[in-house]
Amino acid sequence: MKKIGNILIVDPIKGEFVGNVLVDGGRIESVIPKNSDVYKYIAMPGFIDLHTHGCIGKDTMRLSAEDLEGWEKFLYSQGVTAFLPTTVSAKKEDMLRVSKFVDEYVHERAYTSVYGIHYEGPYINIEKKGAQNSDMIRAATTEEIREVISSVVKLITMAPEVEGFYDVLTVLKENKTVVSLGHTNAGFKDMRRAFLYGVNRITHFPNAIKGLHHRELGGVGAGLYLDFEIEMIVDGIHLAPEFVDMIYRIKGADKIMLITDSIDAAGLEDGKYNLGGLDVTVKNGKATLPDGTLAGSTLLFNKAIKNFKKFTNCSLRELAKVSSYNAARNLAIEDVARIEEGYKANIVLLDKELNVIRTYLNGETVYESN
Hints:
Layout: E1 2-11, E2 15-24, E3 27-33, E4 41-45, E5 47-52, E6 54-55, E7 58-59, H1 65-76, E8 80-85, H2 92-107, E9 117-120, H3 142-148, E10 153-158, H4 165-174, E11 178-181, H5 188-196, E12 201-202, H6 218-225, E13 229-233, H7 241-251, E14 256-259, E15 271-275, E16 278-283, E17 286-288, H8 301-312, H9 316-330, E18 347-350, E19 356-361, E20 364-368
Parallel strand pairs: 1-4, 5-8, 9-10, 10-11, 12-13, 13-14
Antiparallel strand pairs: 1-2, 2-3, 4-18, 6-7, 15-16, 16-17, 18-19, 19-20
């Protein structure tokens, strides 16, 4: 049995308290509160990134087993204990190749932080393509969805106004693939229709969706007015700090999921990169296409949580929600994202400035700062 002691335990449900955590067999055996306010490190559930295209030169569309192992290892330094490698709009053959590779990778390992895959596109609106390759964007068909969807595909970003959207929802529901609205020019009426069909999630809100107008609420207004759960890229580039704080005040911490939307340039120097066949330039950490369109981010998850805390002055309990608990609940992962008896011992230790000190996956130390 392993003891993680002298810590401020931050559980998204029970809150914050000093205590010890006992780990056995990869799971939390017990959580023992102490009558004290003295601690060395902060213990939070391991972070979950449901939207990341790559980092440190690794890209979902160009992965080898060695690449994905390196990606995993690097993300441990960010406190990430579960993530979804995310595609861009691509040919059916490439979607199948990537999903098959990730499926085999996961099943060949006793434990891994790779939870599955996120298809971002290709069933999106070309008018809101952002940094997606327009040559790959297309309508959704039941035939193609049945081919490309498998148990490893946990999440798919689609536009509700695209032809075939409602035709394929039944297939996706049967596969337990969560649908997220994104890269969409849908107005409020179409967003509300999708919401009433059970689609209650929005990709990188409010980027690449229709803006708010006082006579037409659009996608932004729908995200605020209806009970959507939303991803946010809190890098200080995609969203102004004041906007992040406003959304936190309106939606509350229960409805926000931090993601990075990182590309292969994350963790590397400025320079020239490629995303789904498109040329990307990174300057001062900002990734853009030649026309200035934002092309994902170079955000790292540890920076995302620091930014959210700084921009909103949220509690640590709320930070645990936006960084792990909400994402786990969104994908119906029942045994992670809490520091509670019976849960997997996926835990990140941070100092009081929220720097990652140590990361545990299934109770094993997978990262420790020097």
